[in-house]
C-alpha cells in the first residue's frame, strides 16, 4: 500500500486498478501517509499559501433539475432571488475593500442573465477593479457566449464534471448530456479560460471505479482548478433520504487529486466545512489550497441552499474573512489575498510569449 502511495507521489500516476485497490484498503495509517504526501506536494508547488476568493452567489433560479440540488427547478419550496448587476457590483466593492482580488460569480442556470447583461457586468467589474481576477460559475451556455464573456474580461470558469460515470451522470441530470458537459470544459479551455472541473463524493450509486475514473479524467483534462466536495442531501429533492458522502472519502479524493494533478488549485469546499466543523482545515492539510468566503448579502445567503445545513450563512463578509483567516493560520498555513492564478496558467503564458517571440 505504502509503495503505491509513494509511487503516486514520485511519478504522479496510477492505473485505474491501482486506484481502486488503494481506495479499498485505506485504513487510518495509510490515510495519514496519503494526506502527508499530498500536503508535501502542495508545499512543493504552492508553498504554505492559501488563496482566498470572494464568492458571490448571485441567483438561486435554475432551469435544470439535478436530482441532488436544492436549487433544482422542480423544488417549488426553494426561495428564489436574483441580485441585479448594481447589487453584484456592491458585493465586489465590499470584497475589494476587504482585500479580495478574485471574485467568483456563481448561480443556478438562470437565463435572466442574458449574454448582454453578463458582458456589461463583467466589463463594469473589470473597469472598476482591473487588478482582480473574475471567475464565472454559471453552468452551460452556448460556445459563442463563453467566447464573448471571456473577451469581456472573465478570466476563469468553474464547471464541475460532477461524475465521470456516464450512467450515473444521466440518472442525476435528466435533461442534460454527459458528453456536452465535457465538451463545454474543452471549449472553455480552448477559449483560454483557467478552467475548474470537479465532482461530488458519495453520490448514491457511485462506486470506487467511478471515483477512479473521476481522478483519471481530471488527470487527462489537466484543469487549473479542481473542486471536490461530499454529496449532502437536501430535504426537498428526490435524494432527500440518501446518505451523505463521508469526510474521510472526500479527503482521500482531495489528496489523490493533489498527487495526480500537482499544479492544480484545489478548494477546501464549503460542503466539507458543512459536514464537519473542521472539514476545511482537514482538506487544507490533505492538499487543498483555496478557501472561498461568502460575499453575498446576508439577506439572500440561506436562499442559496444547495444542500441542508450549509455553513457561513449568517456572518457579515468582514467577519467571515476574519474567521477564515484565523482558521487558516491555526491550521499552519498563510493567507494570500492576491489573484492566485494557477501554475499552469503561468506556464501557458510563458509558452505563448516564447512562441510569439519566434
Ligand atoms: N449552475 C452552475 C453549474 O452547474 O456549474 C453552478 C452552481 S451549482 C449549484 C454548483 C455546484 O454545487 C455543483 O457543481 C454541484 O457539484 C454542487 N452541489 C449541488 N448540490 C449539491 C449537494 N446536494 N451536495 C453537494 N454539492 C452540491
From TrEMBL:
Pfam families in alphabetical order: Radical_SAM
Radical SAM core domain segment(s): 48-272
One of the protein's GO biological processes: sulfur compound biosynthetic process
Cofactor(s) listed: [4Fe-4S] cluster; [2Fe-2S] cluster
InterPro entries: Aldolase_TIM, BATS_dom, Elp3/MiaA/NifB-like_rSAM, FeFe-hyd_HydE_rSAM, HydE/PylB-like, rSAM, rSAM_sf
Protein's name according to its UniProt entry: Biotin synthase
GO molecular function, a single term: metal ion binding
Amino-acid positions noted as binding [4Fe-4S] cluster in the UniProt annotation, renumbered to this chain: 62, 66, 69
Gene3D superfamilies: Aldolase class I (3.20.20.70)
SUPFAM superfamilies: Radical SAM enzymes
Amino acid at each position: 500500500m505504502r509503495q503505491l502511495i509513494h509511487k503516486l507521489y514520485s511519478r504522479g500516476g496510477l492505473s485505474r486498478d491501482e486506484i481502486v485497490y488503494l481506495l479499498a484498503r485505506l485504513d487510518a495509517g495509510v490515510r495519514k501517509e496519503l494526506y502527508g504526501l499530498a500536503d508535501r506536494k502542495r508545499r512543493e508547488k504552492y508553498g504554505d499559501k492559501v488563496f482566498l476568493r470572494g464568492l458571490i452567489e448571485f441567483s438561486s433560479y435554475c432551469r435544470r433539475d439535478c436530482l441532488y440540488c436544492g436549487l433544482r427547478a422542480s423544488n417549488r419550496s426553494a426561495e428564489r432571488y436574483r441580485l441585479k448587476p448594481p447589487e453584484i457590483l456592491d458585493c465586489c466593492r465590499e470584497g475589494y475593500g476587504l482585500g479580495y482580488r478574485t471574485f467568483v460569480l456563481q448561480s443556478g442556470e438562470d437565463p435572466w442573465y442574458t449574454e448582454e447583461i453578463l458582458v456589461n457586468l463583467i466589463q463594469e467589474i473589470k473597469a472598476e477593479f482591473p487588478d482582480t481576477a473574475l471567475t464565472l460559475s454559471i453552468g452551460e451556455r452556448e460556445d459563442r457566449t463563453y467566447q464573448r464573456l471571456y473577451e469581456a474580461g472573465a478570466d476563469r470558469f468553474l464547471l464541475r464534471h460532477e461524475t465521470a460515470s456516464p450512467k450515473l451522470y444521466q440518472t442525476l441530470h435528466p435533461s442534460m448530456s454527459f458528453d456536452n458537459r465535457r465538451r463545454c470544459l474543452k471549449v472553455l479551455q480552448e477559449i483560454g479560460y483557467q478552467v475548474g472541473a470537479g465532482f461530488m463524493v458519495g453520490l448514491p450509486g457511485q462506486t470506487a471505479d467511478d471515483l477512479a475514473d473521476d481522478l483519471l479524467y481530471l488527470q487527462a483534462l489537466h484543469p487549473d482548478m479542481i473542486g471536490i466536495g461530499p454529496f449532502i442531501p437536501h430535504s426537498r429533492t428526490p435524494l432527500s433520504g440518501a446518505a451523505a458522502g463521508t469526510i474521510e472519502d472526500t479527503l482521500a479524493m482531495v489528496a489523490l487529486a493533489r498527487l495526480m494533478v500537482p499544479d492544480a488549485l484545489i478548494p477546501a469546499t464549503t460542503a466539507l466545512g458543512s459536514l464537519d466543523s473542521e472539514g476545511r482545515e482537514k482538506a487544507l492539510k490533505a492538499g487543498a489550497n483555496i478557501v472561498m468566503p461568502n460575499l453575498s448579502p446576508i439577506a439572500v445567503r440561506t436562499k442559496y441552499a444547495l444542500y441542508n445545513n450549509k455553513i457561513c450563512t449568517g456572518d457579515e463578509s468582514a467577519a467571515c474573512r476574519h474567521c477564515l483567516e484565523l482558521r487558516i493560520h491555526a491550521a499552519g498555513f498563510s493567507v494570500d489575498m492576491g489573484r492566485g492564478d494557477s501554475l499552469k496558467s503561468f506556464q501557458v503564458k510563458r509558452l505563448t510569449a516564447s512562441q510569439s517571440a519566434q
